[in-house]
Amino acid sequence: MDFDFGVLPVLVPVVLGAIFLVGGARQIRRNRWLVRHGGRAHGIVVAQDSRWSSSNDGSGGSYHHAPVIEFVAEDGRTHRAKSEISKTHTSFIPGRCVLVHYDRADPAKIFLPGHDGGPAVIFTLIGAVVLTIGLGALWAFWRGMTADDLMDNGVLFGAVFLCVGGSVLAIGVAGILATLRIKTGPRSRGVVIGETTSTGPQGMTRHHAMVRWTAPTGEVLEAPSGRGRLIRRIPVGTEITVRCHPRDPHRILLAGDWPELASFAFLLFGGLFSVVGGVITWAVLHA
């Protein structure tokens, strides 16, 4: 029986979806294992491992940052470990106290809640959607429809728009909701006691006010603001309102800190692509 090479374009989303799904699921499993069976400690972000990632044509790019954490393990030894996840935007900036789950046998393997978990979930969801689209196209191919037919009637075109748009939309929504959760968290009055810096996606230095405040529990805390400023740095000694994450009091935003513009851009373009993909798919299925 001769192999029908016409099935190759249909197999592409099946293979890609399976790779994303398996890779994301393995990362989620690894993170859960560290949470359940690994050691636990509070550490300090001491640096960011920043690397430039160029676009395919070399005309642009951005910096991706992986936080470097210093923590004391259960055996009393001090370790430094770098997150496996690099991001263009991260609130894990130098000076912030964070929770670390680590492998007791190899403390260099860590999991940072609030930083490392999201990408694995997104990869898994994207993989599941792409795999579903690919399996649907493969089923149609077995029913006698060719890859050209699938492209001509717009089913794959609409599905791709839905997949890309939905993924981008999810990133934008997640970013905005994460900020709003902090902005609606416990409120305190604090004072700026210093400053730390981080590097933005294009290499610009961002200045984060280091704030000391008294939590509702009576505990005196210090942490840098999660939102850096390029200009209008906050002077030392300034009294300011502090909002904390309900489950992580060292994750803070200050008065005037709102979601990044990038989150709104993801929301806008993701929503636009999703609507276009949905309209195309609906029109094809009801033609």
TrEMBL record:
Residues 42-112 form the DUF3592 domain. Pfam families: DUF3592. InterPro entries: DUF3592 (IPR021994). The chain crosses the membrane at residues 6-25, 120-142, 154-180, 261-285. Keywords: Membrane, Transmembrane, Transmembrane helix. This is DUF3592 domain-containing protein. It comes from Saccharopolyspora shandongensis.
